[in-house]
Every structure is written in C-alpha cells, then in structure tokens.
Design a protein that fits this description.
Layout: H1 2-68, H2 72-94, H3 103-125, H4 132-162, H5 166-170, H6 174-189, H7 209-212, H8 227-238, E1 243-248, E2 259-266, E3 274-279, E4 285-289, H9 301-314, E5 320-328, E6 331-340, E7 343-355, E8 361-365, H10 367-372, H11 385-389, E9 397-407, E10 413-423, E11 426-433, E12 439-448, E13 451-454
Parallel strand pairs: 7-9
Antiparallel strand pairs: 1-2, 2-3, 3-4, 4-8, 5-6, 6-7, 7-8, 9-10, 10-11, 11-12, 12-13
Helix pairs in contact: 1-2, 1-4, 2-3
Length: 455
Amino acid sequence: MKGAEIMRRWILPAVLTTALIFTGIWGYNQYRLNEQYRIHMDNLYQKSFYELVGNVGSVETRLAKLMVSGDRSQHMMLLSEISRQAHAAQMDLGQLPISHAALDKTSKFLNQLSDYAYYLSKQVSDGKTISIEEIENLQKLHENAARLNSDLTRLSTEVLKEQPGWGKLMRKAGSDFYEISDDLYTKQFVNLQKTGIDYPSLIYDGPFSEALNQKAGREFKGAPVTEQQAAEIALDFFGNDRTARIERSADSTNGILDTWGFQIWTREEPDNPFYISVSRKGGKVVNLIGQHQVEKETLSVKEAMRKAEEFLAAKGFKGMIPTYQQSFQGMSTINFAYAHDDIIFYPDLIKVKIALDDGRVYGFESRNYLLAHKERKLEEPALTMEEAQKLVNPSLKITSSRLAVIPTDGGQERLCYEFKGNLGEKRFIVYIDANSGEEADILQIIETENGSLTI
C-alpha cells in the first residue's frame, strides 16, 4: 500500500512536468511561427509602400511629359505606362494595413486615372488626337498626382524615419494605431478630391544612359597590344611621378572591348590602389577607378569641371563639353560629350570624377566614346530649326535650342533638334527628329542637392 502511494506521489509530478515541457516547446514553436509571420507581413507592408511611392512618382513624371509632348506615338506610349503604373499603385495601396475611409478617395483617384489613361491610349491608337478638354482633364490629374507624390515622398523620408516599419505601428494598441493612422495618412490624403471626369468605363546617370549601354554586336578595332605595352600605356596615362608600383590585376573579356587590367599604388595614398584598364586592341585607357576620402571640400563644381576639361584636353580628347554633373561624398562626376560644328554628339560619352578637395582625377570612363566616336558625314537636315520648333508643344517655353545626335534603343543614331524649356516650374528637353519631324524623346530635368538628373 505504501509502495502504491509513493508511486502516485512520483508519477503525478512527472506527468505534470512532462506536460509542462511539451507545452513550453509548443508555445516556443508557436512564438517562432508568429514571429516569422510578423516579419513576413512587416516586409510585405514595407515592400508595398515603397512600390506605391515608386509607381506614383513614375505616374507623375509621365503625366508631366504628356503635357509637353506633341507626338502621337509618344502619347500612346506614355498613356499606356500611366495606366499600368496607376493600376499597380492602386494594388500597392490595397496591400497596406490602413482602414481609414479617407484612403477610399486615393484608391478611387488611382483607379480613375488608370481607366482614363487606358481610354485615351485606345483613342490615340485608333488615330484620334487628344482634345483640349481631355488635356485639361489630364492637367487636373497631374496636379493631384503631383500632390500625392509629394505627400508620399514626405511620408517615406520623414515619418517612417521616426516610425520604422509598418509592423511597429500595427503592434501598438488598436486605438493608438488608428490615432497614428489618422495623423499620418488622413492629412496626406483627405485633400485628394474626386476629379469629376466623365469617361467611358472599361527613369542616372545622365541623358540616354540606357541607350548608351546597348553596344552588343559592335567590335572595337585597333592593333593588338601586349601586357607590357598596356602597362606602359597605363603608367603614362596615370603619371609616372605619382606611381609607387604597378601590378597585373583582373582583365575584362566580353567580346566587345577586351582589356588588360592593372592596379597602381600611389606615393600619396599607398593604402588605396587605383584600378586601370587598357584595351587589348588599340591600347586605349577604358577605365580608371580610385578611392579617396574627402574630409573637406575646397573646390566648387565649376572649378572641378574646369579641371576635368583640362585633364581631357591633356589626354588628347578634343571638343568635349560638359553635359551633366552630379556630386556625392565630395566627388564630382561630370559627363562630357563630343561637339563639332555646333552639333553635340551624345553617344561619344566620357565620364570624369574629380575630388573636391585636392582636385585630382579619381575616376575616368571612356567605353562609350571608344565604341561610338567616328568621323560622321551628316546630311543637311530636311527641317530648319524654326520648322522643328513649331512641332514642339506650345506650352513649353523654350530657352535654348541646337542640333544633337542622340543614341536610340536599337543602338543606332538620330539627328535631332534639341529644345530646352520650362513648363511652369518644371524643366524639360524635347528632341525633334531633324528629318522626319517626329518627337524622338523627352527628358525631364530634376534638380537635386547632388546635381541635375534627367528622367
């Protein structure tokens, strides 16, 4: 009897302990699953929000371009993109954990914009032109898109910096979350009103950067150079007086522009070697890449441009003019294009990076120039400058004009008239084909704290 009593005393605690252990293991596994799910949802919300910001920004940019464009084929392409990206933005909005009624107007606006752009693209594809009334509707849509884009950009740069992650907001108390939601979103979206349109229901690094990268099928020609010859060319380009030592480094072999690669150590910064590449045919320097920490900027961007121009002239590159500039962490990167007989040739691109403290060159890239530069025989344009200017949308207030050769997405070149101008506070560049009169391209110039961007 005593033995049975003793067994009962041991068995019950053992069972309870075992149950507790299993409960703990189950609880821990549930916690891990919940934590993984929380992280997954947090990432999903974050992804949806930033995709919303990107899509709305693209919609606003394309609507602005549409206001400037006077070409039917451009209208069709831009309207199609606006419709697609507005629909994508609406889908992104629907993924966010927001239930306030004010967002219904934003969702309705994006849906209306998508439908209206699709309707107009079908009209244009059928040979019709955009009417004055439709242009006015698009202007209203652009104003709303610009306001929404500004609000979302402010939200992403300021508010989310203080409240990182949508999941953190969701994990607050329910009422507290909706108070935050009211503060962050209602003020942003409540002013977006219904546009009242009656419609049937259903981009840097500089201009032409994407087209310039399409060099497939081209072959760079020239006499072959040995490794030793390439090393001598690299030293001469870099400067023997600055060089402490040079060693063979990674080569590049891509079938278009094969290169010898070298590392160069300098006397002034022995811990930061430069990389330099020399073409195996022709012996031309293709790249120069160096690292440098700028502690204090002492040069202006204009002074950096002058030093870059002097550098290119000293290396035998004549007729190069700056077309684009951007500064970052004390380094100014300047794009140069070849100019001759008052015509600028954008395919002949060279980039130079200048440090804004010591004024030295820490970057050089001539790949596009080497592949594109040649003697061109251009025929007299079929259109005069005045005739081409009449084809530009009259809403654009033109500030300058000139002839330009631009690259196309197919790797060809196109002679155009380049018209720079303003539409309100926005700046654009419009390219009119000098022979056909077709609107070849539109670029919007965006001023940033680091320089000018074109999209």
